[in-house]
Structure formats: C-alpha cells, structure tokens
Amino acid sequence: MKSIIVFLWFFVVFFIESTLTTPVYGNNPALSTIDFTPEERSYIEKTSSIKMCIDPDWTPFEIINNKGEHEGIAADLIQLVAQRVGLKIELYPVKTWEESLSASKSKQCQIMSFLNQTPARDQWLIFTDPVFFDPNIIITREEHSFIGDLKGLKNESVALPRGTMVEERIRRDYPNLKVILTKSESEAIALVSEKKASLTIRSLIIAAYSIKKEGLFNLKISGQIPEYTNQLRIGILKEETILRNILDKGVKTITPQEREAISNKNVSINIQQGINYSLALKALMGGSLLLGLVFYWNRKLSTLNKKLELLSITDRLTGLFNRIKIDSTFQEQIAHSQRSRKFFSVILLDIDHFKSVNDTYGHQTGDIVLTEVAHILQNNTRKTDIVGRWGGEEFIIICPNTNSKQAISLAESLRRLLQAHEFPITKSQTASFGVATYQKEDQSKDIVGRADTALYLAKNKGRNCVEFQ
Length: 469
Description:
Blueprint (H helix, E strand, L loop, with lengths): L1 H19 L17 H9 L3 E4 L3 E2 L3 E3 L5 E2 L1 H13 L3 E3 L5 H9 L5 E5 L9 E3 L4 E3 L1 E6 L15 E5 L3 H9 L4 E5 L2 H9 L5 E5 H11 L4 E6 L5 E8 L3 H11 L4 H12 L9 H9 L1 H26 L10 H18 L3 E8 L2 H8 L1 H17 L6 E6 L2 E7 L3 H17 L10 E7 L6 H17 L5 E3 L1
Parallel strand pairs: 1-5, 1-6, 10-11, 10-12, 18-19
Antiparallel strand pairs: 2-3, 3-4, 6-14, 7-14, 8-14, 9-12, 9-13, 15-17, 15-18, 16-17
C-alpha cells in the first residue's frame, strides 16, 4: 500500500510541477568566445576570484538562502556572465541591503550584483550595460482609481523599501507623497494590501511574484512610470575599469531567450517534495479536487501575468508599445546585430504642426489624430516591426533585418499614406520622418540620436519629408 502511495504521490507532484514550472535555461557555448584585449586577458589570468555584494532579501531577483548561497534571477544571470568571461565570483555575506551598500562603499566587495544606476551610486561605482530590464508599476488596492500622474495625488502614502532607486527618485520627483519605508519588497506590498499604505511602486516581476505567492488578489495595477523602468546592471568600484570592461563584454553575450528562461525559472511556484504518507493519502483521496484547483489557479495566474505584462508595455491612448517595450527592444536588436552582423533600422516621425491641432480643436481632437496615426502605422508595417509611441506626437518604428534603403522606402510609403488620409475633424495631416541604421558599436542613444537629427533636418526642410542620417 505504501509503495502505491509513494508512486502515485510522485506522479501527482511530477504532474503539478510540469504544469506550473518552466524549463531551466541552457548554456550556449557558442557565445563564450569573447574578444578580450591583452590587458583584459592578463587581468582574468591573475584574478582568482571577485567579491560580490548583493541584496540578501530581494525575492525573486536574489536572496542568500539557508545554505549561504546566492539564489534568484540575478544569481543565474551573473553566474552566466562569470562563466563566459572566465571569472569566479565569491559572495560577500551580508544580512541587509543597507549592509551591502556600506560594504561596497568601504571597498569590501568589488562588484554589486543587480542594481539601477543613479547619481548617488555614480559617486563610487561604474556600471555595465543593463543585465535585465523590468518595468516599475504602481500597485494599489482594487478600489483605488487609476493614477495618471503621481503629482496629482494628495494625502496619500507610498510604501517603499529603504535605500532603493525608487525611494531616491520618489523623494526627488514627488514630494507630495508621504514615504513609508520598509525592510523588504514583500512588506511594502503587504502594507498596501492591509490598507496601511495607499500604494507602492514595485517592479512587474516582484508584483507578479508576490501576488502569486501570497494570493493578494485584492491588489491591482493602477498605473505605470515608464521613466522608472529598472535597468538592472552590475556595479563595479570606480577604480576597477578593466573589470567593468570584462564584465560588460560578458553581459552583451546574454540573449533575450536566456533572460526570459532565467526569469521564468525563478518566478515559478516551488512545491515541497518531502513525503508525508498520511498527508499523501489525504491528497490522493482528494486528487480530482486538487488537480481541478491546480488548473483553475494556473489559468488565473497565467491570465493575470499576461495582463500585467501587456499593460506595462502598452501606451494607454494609442495601444502601441510604450518606451518600456521600445527600450528593451533596442537592447535585443543591438545584441542580435552584434552577434549576427545584420542591420536594423529606426524610423522616428513627428506629426507636423500638432500644437496647432490642440490649440485650434482641443486636446480630444489631438488624441483622435494620435490614434489615427497609430492605426495607420500599425496596419502598414510588417509583423516583425516594433511600432511605438516615443512621446507626445512622436512615434518610433524599429525595423529588424532592414537596411537603410529599405527603411527609407518604408518611411516614404508611410509619409504618403498619412498625407493621403482623411482625418476626422482636421481632415489633412502630415508628418516628418527621420531614419537611421545601426552601426557597429552603436548604443540605443546613438542610433536614436541620428534618427532625431534626421527628423529635425526634415522639419527644417519644410516638413512632410523623409531624411536619413
């Protein structure tokens, strides 16, 4: 009887785990070949290990577990970087984030694992390119209204973990909010659930993880702050420029697929695997109910996650992608171009004389023009093109595997479509276009800068035309 129970118990556990978890990412040896300078190779050969400070209580990004080991998304990503550059990472033990910051400032560790770059941190650290992107969202209870602008809130409180990038920026940007400091992410979210704080501003992944783990379905996303997107990097002591360059090269080898697999692995639900025969028998007797609940909650959590993700990357007015999605797409396309040596291009466009539309017809008409332009762009580009609202009356299109000639042709086609379109109320409307193509060693600011220069060249030439830089 006991052997049958054991067999069936493992079958149920295996079934549940296969339903709720994601396969672990694989290492890609092809990406391990990195072109180091002689100075960098010498550094790697002479360095036995690098000491690293982390946030010991930042699930699912990173924690120090009961065995004193580094776990989480950051742990897996940084281990991947370390493997590819040939360095060994040694964990510097701390109990709190504040202790980790203090140890870094006093140079007891050479790197910090997973943090946003801020003016305060620039005083003693230099940074790699982002290792991971994650939007910050506004979380409230269900009954709270949508928050379009935090500056409009009065007599409201925000719960935030102490010493974070968000705390630093909220104090600077929104002095109208009362800040309640907490020791952890989960405490901040719990205060909102318990009506002890009006809202919290946390990462999308943290929010999804906490809602799953704690069952806090009385919470909702009430808004987002695109400019607060987490661009999580490795921080390195200022004097360690060679180490920064080495790690930066390792970061650039990580693919979007590896980031996604690592994220999914660490946000999945863990199931206790120790066997209690009495409990197992009860579980098997109610097996059909258990499996029914598994399917129900799996579907509910899956739907919630999809809604959370879609909301975080969508412009509310036009339905196009927002800056969060555009920024992450840039990083993906740059990494792809560096590996494959294939081109991608960027089209930046600005609606001509849009201010006069708002001044003459009102902002509601201006919104109609924006949505009409968005539909034209979305319906006349390829499925592989990423179309987004860049800000105000500016739109952006990222065109994978597209050279300059092809991008200019697409921009000219879109220009003619906009010119020929009959807009509600305003009737006619045109736009100016700037086009740029990826060049070796470009960062997103470089290619956007050239597209922006081309756009304003088009404006200066009389508008309603396409220019390339």
